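In this notebook, the sequence line spells out the residues, with the fold written below as integer tokens. This is how one looks.
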Amino acid sequence: MAISPVKRIHIIAHRSLKGPIVELLQDLGVMEVVTEKNPSLPLLPSSPSRKEELERKLGEIRYCLDFLERYRQEKPNALENFFPRPVEVKKEDFLHHHFSHVPIYRACSAIEEQLNQIRTTVNKLNGNLEFLRKIKSVQVPLECLGGTRFTFGFLLEVPREKLPLFEERLKAVGREWLMEMFPSSRGFWVFFLGHRDGEEKVKEIFQELSLSPLAFPQAFEGTPEEAMRKIEARLQEVMAQRDALLKKALAYLRFEKDLKVAHDYYGVLLEREAVESAILRTQEAYLISGWAKEEAVPMVEESLRKVGKEWVLYHRDPQDGEDPPIDLQNGVWAKNFEVLTRLYGLPNYTEIDPTPFLSLFFFLFFGMCLGDVIYGIVLALLGFIAPLYLPLSESARRFFHMLGWGGVASVGVGIATGSWLGDVFDYLPGFLSAVTGFKKALAVIDPINNPLPMLVFSLALGIVQVLVGIALSFVKEWRRKHFAVAIMDHLSWFIFLVAIVMYLLGMTALGVLKSVALPILVGSALFLVATQGRSKKNPVMKVLSGILSLYGVVSYLGDVLSYSRLFALGLSSSIIAILARTLGMLFGSSPYIGWLIGLAVALLFNVFNLLMSGLGAFVHSARLQYVEFFTKFYENGGREFKPFGYKTKYIKLS
């Protein structure tokens, strides 16, 4: 239940052992390799030789995988997309992987290039079809529009209202022309053919009437209908070519597994190159520096003996100013709640890991917010069973387990408050009355009819967590040997707040506590007044600052009141469940299929309630940890321990 102690490791080895040692460290996966920033010797950085080649190979393999994913016919479902199943490969087979992706890359590139050409052709043909559909009614060979030495031709659309004026203007030009008209959406398509001598005058008429000849995207032969048939036939040919190429592309799916293994293999080699670039060297030796957990140092030394004798390893504790990596070390149960700590930020190396304390509080808070037996059972089954069948990462598996334990807490709170899908179990048939009686016998609190005990319990949990936060702050400063700060700023407030709680309890229930708490309360208050202004130089300001510091009680009171949300969220979850039952019975009273409608309505409302209440339970329980608890003692700012090893994307080593 702490942060794993780490050691700074330095390995000095002969240059002949650089490759074997780097491979060994990657295989062990227990050391984070870093560059020595201030070496005591004039060392030179190593120069990687294969980085560009490996990056090129990785890029080519990614291209092939993206190509296959883009053109596969059977797409994975949403669940498979979210939780892709890794390819299981034996470690020995992976390390001796031999697969040439180059022929596949070249084939995929060639197919992609041809498909791109086909897309361009299809777009062009579809554009021509769309153009010809507009003039489909024209029954004139389109090659006649080009004109000859003595004639010119146009196709233009003339609106109905302009047609009489257009004809009148043309008659004034002369008789050396002819035209045919075909219906269009706005009026008529006019095929106009005239002698070259009158071309300028005809163009002036077009300009006067704001008419413009139709511009063709390319030359066509035959009437528009004949040209369309030719284009459609060409489209069918092109699409047949496209289908053949897609079928050819699908044939390469059989290499998908090999490509994924190759991707991760070259990724591992690339990471090894990156580590080698962080190694400093002289003419004959190399310096490998990094961090490892204290428990792993003997294993590293033992493994190095198998590589050779020309090396030396020494290690030390982290020094001031260094930034050692953080590896959380918690028990089996608390480990499931590490995701909450990571969401906020890892602790730094000199403070306390909050996960063991956070796990218990989050467990209780989540249960109080959801607070229903049936909802809790559903969530627990989801959290514990889903990881058995889904290919989840370790962090995702722990997250599901955390939700499962939240469901367990909800079952416990639901039993204590008598919430079993709201009050559905109060309306069971008579032959199940024993179940209803059993449910009522287990209930301890009825938050709907008597909410005060549940509210008081929520606030009491808030007081406990705030006090635990202050106590942890005291322990943190004491471990750092800041004894004055620990006593004056943390222990004194802890005693003062405990005395206030004891005094209030003495006023309400336990009278004996009042007489015990009063001198402690007065003494701790005087101690705070005397110490909280110690940073001021003026004696008067010291006293005034000390007196004003007592106003901090209001801040702690506000923190405690925030925990009333536990009661409110739990109550809302039960009320919405009761509403679901009420609506279900209301619709169910209808004749014929009313029971089916009522069941569907109740089911939908309960599913909605489970989703929203579960989300609210997670968000607000986490918020209480981050805002009310962590602010009392937690600094964060740590970075995660990332040992040099086999980091893969598609495969799982066995």
Notes: Residues 62 and 107 are 14 Å apart (CA to CA). The longest strand covers residues 6-14. The chain has 22 helices and 13 strands.
